[in-house]
Amino acid sequence: MFQNELDFHALIQPETALEARLLDTQAFREGLNWGKPRFGHPEGKVGLHVREVLDNVEHCAANSTTRLQLRLVAIVHDTFKFKEFQMGRRVKHHGLLAREFMEGYLDDPALLDIIALHDEAFYIWRAAHLENRPDAAAHRLGALLETLGENLSLYFDFYKCDTRTGDKLQAPLLWFEQVVLGI
Prior knowledge:
Strand content: under 5%
Largest sheet: 2 strands, antiparallel
Number of helices: 12
Structural class: mainly alpha
Order of helices and strands: HHHHHHEEHHHHHH
Strand order of the largest sheet: 1-2
Shape: globular
């Protein structure tokens, strides 16, 4: 057990065999226990953020199937932040690391895509609104929408659950909601 390690089963309250199995892996324990308070994540540890997202899932899911899908994405989405930076430089985005890990446990391309791309709407908003790169943003948005296809609604539901936590900026969510409603 890590120093000051969270009680992951009590915190996450796994509901499926897969959720419980993931929480028992070394990588998940390390990932959920990682983090310090910072902008967007005043709660610090990833596991505490996951708990906030799971609480939002309870209010967002339209049905039991969607709820279980959103729970799984929530549990996995930020768990590999601890591996994102090695030797002081970004190796891979934590969403892609999470997807690669989950490919050993999950055979659902839609959920794997959402896990990998869970921050993409924010990056698109940032490119358009903070970096003044509207062409790049439009290109990335087109690629995201093409990848998500009929799973756009599930992605949007997760994006809401994730963004409505901590002290995250809400402008990217409001922008994406307008884009999604405009499609």
